[in-house]
Structure prediction request, 162 residues.
Amino acid sequence: MKFWHTIKDYVFIILAVVLIRSFLVTPAVVDGGSMDTTLADGQVVFINKLAYKIGDIERFDIVVLKEENDKIIKRVIGLPNETIEYKDNVLYINGEKVTTNLKFKYTENFKATTGSNEYFVLGDNRPLSKDSRMVGNFTKKDFVGRVNFRIWPFNKFGTIDK
Prediction:
């Protein structure tokens, strides 16, 4: 009984950390330059795993997705049942011009569509990004979570604007 009294606080702390990492948030390291300049290679972010269990996926969310045997970080551009087109580096959704304050690398012209449960994602550094243009659309089950908080480097610590 004395042994349990000595270790019970540590057991509860370990249990809390495991539960939080499994179901709420987990850290991840950005691997590669496909999200430059928003997220750089080697930066550490939190993945909010609960975000899409209780809320909707929104345009321009930064997300972590399962892609084959890997996890990738991209930005949601197209929502279900949309036609996504980039023409002269301008985004059009269902024929309507979309304006944003976000800065992306130049995007070559293309046109794509999404189905009823499909999302179209791109990296912010379009020339270097392996994204929906190459691997196709993603479904909600492919989403691991939303990225909206950076913890490393410390000079960029805080929320990430979308």
Observations:
- The longest strand covers residues 143-152.
- The first helix runs from residue 2 to 23.
